[in-house]
Each structure stands twice: as structure tokens, then as C-alpha cells.
Amino acid sequence: MPDVHLWATDGYISTPDGKSIYIWGFTDQEGGSARLPGPLIIIKQNAPPRKTTVNVSLTNNLDVPVSLLFPGQEEVRVHGRRVQPQYENGALVSLANFARPGETITYTFTAAGPGTFLYESGTNPHQQVPMGLYGSIIVRPWDYEPDSGEFQTAYGAGTGTEFQREYLLVLSELDPGLHQALETGGNYDIRGFKPRYWTINGRCANDTMLPDHAAHLPNQPHGSMVMMEPGERVLLRYACAGSANHPLHPHGNHTRLVGLDGRLLQNRIGPTIHDLSYKRFTVLVGAGQTYDQIYTWTGLGFDPVSRPIPTTLPNIRNVVIGHTGMTFWNGSPYLGEKRELPPDVVSFNEKGEYHFMLHSHAEPEITNWGAFPGGLMTMIAVYPEGTLDEHHGRLPVEST
Ligand SMILES: [Cu+2]
Fold first, then answer.
1. Predicted TM-score (pTM) above 0.85
2. Domain, as residue range, for 290
3. Are strands 66-67 and 98-99 parallel, antiparallel or unpaired?
4. 152 lies in some domain
5. How far is the CA of 112 from the centre of ligand 1 (A)?
6. Is residue 73 part of a domain?
7. What is the distance in A from the centroid of ligand 1 to the CA of 286?
8. How far is the C-alpha of 50 from the C-alpha of 301, rounded, in Å?
9. How high is the mean pLDDT of the chain?
């Protein structure tokens, strides 16, 4: 039975335009700073008929009450009793039992189905969730087995959800006015909420493309570069912890939606299986929702013999070789083939891979306080076969 301990506390995050923003959030380290998003909880289900019961203890180091909601999980209890909305003097003060400042409270739930889920504060959620009190949960099917082909799946063997690599992108948006007010004791009217920053895994572009555990982003440990090889099935998990919907789309190929809110898009009526998965160019990631998708890059129009270059050749003036002295161009339009670059030109391209965007189609969301590029934007990098390190796109079987 997995046991998780979270601390609600405060801390600071960085934005690529040099700001430091005060947040509330969760950490799994006693005495640690708040992280954005909160620690990822990964649970592998027990083989049926055994239930998968999870204990989450919450210690509240903030000076306001904090609680946890587990949307999509079943039998959520606190100290053995069903979780309840909390009232004081007849007024609703929390959607769930809460921990007062300094208290520890233990929630228990049953992870009844595989998929991607959120957890977040249910106390003043309009304030506490945008401040950063949210995180996500991955539930793996009981037969999950990494590197096993048919058993490395999102929803179980035989569900058509096999994958080779997986990436989790947790979205949110942030109004610095709210954060400043809570840091300094100022006033803030939530009805005037106006986001200036948009985050994937707690980072704004271009920090989204930096590696996990980048040293200068200690409270934003997760990047969101999607790194893959041609033909691989990549499981893209989107989770929207914000209060707005965000239209995300990857370039290259469409995604196939296989799961929504932790529900496999499949109907089983007797022996008949109806496949309800569907392909999308842009997925409108709804507030509070999660989307599990399979993405495979084939290269539009790519054919190794008749059309080996699945792209229009860039004009040489547009490949940034020259006075800037650096380029993403690898010297060749072919995946994996390199040509010599002019002297003094540095290429960021490692192995002759292709880079293209995955971003929000709502243009204000790809800025940082009005400056492009920023916000909900990251890159997909397709590496030549056999050149991408195995550790990319590998999340543990279970969190420890
Ligand atoms: Cu685009």
C-alpha cells in the first residue's frame, strides 16, 4: 500500500524574464520549499480483486487551512470517515476536511482505475490552486510492466494504449498580482484574476525546454521537452490544473486521444469492443481535466526512397548560420545526417534530430507578461533511430 507524505508550504519560482514569484505548494521533503507542481504520485494497481488503497498524509506548514481533493479517485476518507465539505457558522469553508496550520491529516483513497489525475486543495480553491497547491497522480494498470511491449500500457494489456515513452504536461496560469498580495499581505480581488504567465510543469517557456532538475530552478524540477525516436508510441499525458481551457497542439502529427479524465475511451458491450479513441490536431485541455494521448511521429509525407526530406528545405538565410555564431541547423535536412558547419558556428543540434513545437493555440498564452516567446510552449525533438538515451520519457513504475 503506497504511503505518501506531503507538506503544504511556501516558496519561490523563477520565470524566464528574471522574476521570482512567491507560491504556495506541496513538497515531499520535510522542511523543503513548495514545488510547482506538487510531487508526482505514481501508483501501480494491485492485481484484482485486491483494492489499491493509498494513504496521503498532509502536514500544513502554511498559516491558513489546507485540504486535498482527489478527483476521479474512489472512497476518499479521512481518519476512516468519508471526506465531507466543511461548514463554519453555516457557511461553506472547505470542500474537504482540512488541516489547520501545524496539523497533519491523513486521507485514504482507492485508486479504482488507471489513468492521469489531479490532486489539489479544496479550501479556498479559487485562491489556493492558482497559488500552486496542486499536483498530479498517475495510476498504472495492475499488469503494467515497463519495456515489455504489450504490458507497457496506460490502461492495461489489450486496450490499445501501449507506449514506449511517456511525458506528463501539467498546465496552469498565474497572475502575479495574487501572489504578491499573499506575500505582502495586500488586497487582491479574485474576480480581477488576469494571468500574465502560463506554465507547463510549473515552468514558462523557454524554461520548459531545460532538463529536469536544472540547478537554477530548484522548485520547478520538471521540464517538458518531448524527446522521441521516429515511429515510437509516445504517451502524452495532459493535466490542466488551471481555471482556463488551453488549446494545445503538437506539430508534426496529430495525437490520438485514448483516455479522458482517467477513463479509457472504449466501450465494451458484451464481447464487442467499441473503440472511441479519436485523433485531434488541437486538444482543448479543459480546466480540471486530463487527457491521455498516443503520439507517433512519422514525418508528414516522409518516404525513405521517394521523399526522404519530410520538410521544405529552409532558405539558407533562415537557418541562423552566420554572425550569431550559433544554430539549431545541423548542416543537413536529413534526420541524423550532419554536414560540416562553417568555422565558429556552434550547433545546438545534438544528433541530427528534428525540433518542432508543441504549444497553445491561444496566442496570449505563449508569452511571458506580453513578451513572445513564452508560456505554454515546448518542443518535440525527434532523434535518429537508436540515438536517444533510454532515460528520456521514462517515469518510474511507482513513486517511492
Ligand atoms: Cu503550431
1. yes
2. 113-302+353-382
3. antiparallel
4. yes
5. 36
6. no
7. 19
8. 48
9. 92
